[in-house]
Design a protein that fits this description.
With 139 residues, this protein is mainly alpha-helical. The chain has helices at 7-22, 26-48, 58-68, 70-73, 81-102, 114-137. The protein starts with 6 loop residues before the first helix and ends with a helix.
Length: 139
């Protein structure tokens, strides 16, 4: 069965990540931000009935949404946007191993440094803001 993930759970994880960053612990936000993007992508797929499996990575979920949501399918006037989307997919591919092996999600001996943690959080926020704008706010 496909897991369910609500927008409320995404919001709660985002609040935890923001709290960690506000308390000067950006490394503590990495795991929560991964949960935020994963949950958000699942929520969008569920809302619009896009087919995915519980084994799908966040990169795969991003691709499912890109290939199926009509507001994201619109071709851009700029041909380099496809390169940008593919780069975001590569970034998303890197997030799970970072979360699993370099964050506080598990007892890892080597963690990402603070600058990297902030980069990860900001990148996830950028992707979320784009998707949210295209899916829920664009006319």
């Amino acid at each position: 069965s496909v897991p369910s993930f609500s927008r409320e759970a995404v919001a709660a994880a985002l609040l935890e990540a923001e709290k960690a960053q506000a308390e000067g612990n950006p490394v503590g936000a990495v795991d929560r931000m991964h949960t935020v993007i994963h949950g958000y992508l699942i929520s969008v797929c569920n809302q619009f009935g896009f087919v995915y499996t519980k084994e799908d990575t966040i990169s795969r979920l991003f691709k499912v949404i890109r290939r199926n949501h009509p507001k994201i399918l619109k071709e851009s006037a700029n041909p380099n946007m496809e390169k940008l989307f593919n780069s975001f997919s590569n970034i998303l591919d890197a997030l799970s191993p970072i979360r699993n092996n370099s964050s506080l999600a598990h007892p890892n001996s080597e963690l990402v440094d603070e600058a990297e943690a902030i980069l990860i959080s900001n990148t996830i926020r950028t992707i979320l803001q784009y998707l949210d704008s295209k899916i829920y706010r664009e006319l």
